[in-house]
């Protein structure tokens, strides 16, 4: 469980990102604890400002939260182009904004929504910033249930030891898409695109948690407030998000 200070940083980043959402836009809703704080903040704007938006959730859990907050929902069947998606991340590489995502189990839907978005904005706290992705967490690899052991052996040839993710330490974790997840620790990656390509070419792999060259902006909460980072830019000084009415 995150310490109270870290929770405060995550909430500050999420609330700052919620203020950039404009009226009459299609918004992708990410999954995970920090993304949930963004959805919460967005719900308050919908209630207070009668904010006219329509949203596409990346998981059943995100959809349930949005419905509770009376945030209007749609799907990619009705809106194939998304204006902005706001999501969390397990790691954020400084400068490139390369990401590892999927420790909440929703990487496949998150990547589908992100790829349909004009902008992918990340909300996180400063503990998630790394010099190279893979430094802190493993890469979630979503695989079909059939023959997952054979898929795991192929992944082992890449120099990792795939660990089948379990729910409550017992039965295998099953994603919203009905697949298993193999958590693969590669360590800090100097060339994550090479690993991503090998994962993409592995039979049985549905998707993986390397999000490379996709994020355009990141709101990072920390000791010095919320910093707004842009892709291919060095982390800068604290910045203030654009204010909106009634914020």
Largest sheet: 6 strands, mixed
* Strand neighbour order, sheet with most strands: 2-1-3-6-15-16
Q: In the residues, how many domains can be counted?
A: 2
Strand tally, please? 16
Overall residue-averaged pLDDT value: 93
Are there runs of 5+ residues with pLDDT below 50, and where? Answer: 233-247
> Strand share of the residues?
25-35%
Can you describe what's shown?
Helix 1 (4-18) packs across helix 2. The protein is α/β, with parallel strands linked by helices and 247 residues long. It has two domains: 4-128 and 212-230, Rossmann fold (3-Layer(aba) Sandwich), CATH 3.40.50; 139-205, ACT domain (Alpha-Beta Plaits, 2-Layer Sandwich). The protein is globular and about 55 Å long. It is built from six helices and 16 strands.
Describe the protein's topology:
Layout: H1 4-18, E1 25-29, H2 33-49, E2 53-57, H3 60-68, E3 82-87, E4 91-93, E5 99-100, H4 107-115, E6 117-125, E7 129-130, E8 139-143, H5 148-156, E9 163-164, E10 166-167, E11 171-172, E12 180-184, H6 192-200, E13 205-208, E14 210-211, E15 217-222, E16 225-230
Parallel strand pairs: 1-2, 1-3, 3-6, 4-7, 6-15
Antiparallel strand pairs: 4-5, 5-14, 8-12, 8-13, 9-12, 10-11, 15-16
């Amino acid at each position: 469980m995150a310490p109270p200070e870290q929770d405060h940083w995550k909430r500050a980043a999420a609330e700052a990102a919620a203020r950039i959402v404009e009226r009459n836009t299609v918004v992708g809703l990410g999954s995970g604890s920090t993304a949930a704080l963004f959805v919460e903040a967005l719900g308050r704007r919908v209630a207070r400002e009668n904010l006219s938006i329509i949203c596409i959730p990346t998981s059943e859990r995100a959809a349930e939260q949005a419905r509770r907050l009376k945030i209007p929902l749609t799907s990619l069947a009705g809106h194939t182009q998304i204006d902005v998606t706001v999501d969390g991340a397990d790691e954020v590489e400084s400068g490139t904004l390369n990401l590892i995502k999927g420790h909440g189990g929703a990487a496949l839907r998150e990547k589908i929504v992100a790829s349909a978005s004009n902008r992918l904005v990340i909300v996180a706290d400063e503990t998630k910033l790394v010099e190279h992705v893979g430094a802190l967490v493993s890469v979630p690899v979503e695989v079909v249930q059939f023959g997952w052991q054979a898929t795991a052996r192929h992944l082992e040839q890449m120099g990792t030891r795939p660990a089948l993710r379990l729910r409550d330490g017992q039965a295998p974790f099953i994603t919203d898409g009905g697949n298993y997840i193999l958590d693969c620790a590669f360590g800090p990656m100097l060339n994550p695109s090479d690993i991503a390509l090998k994962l993409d070419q592995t039979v049985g792999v549905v998707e993986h948690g390397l999000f490379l060259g996709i994020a355009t902006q990141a709101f990072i909460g920390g000791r010095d407030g919320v910093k707004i980072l842009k892709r291919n830019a060095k982390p800068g000084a604290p910045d203030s998000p654009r204010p909106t009415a009634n914020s």
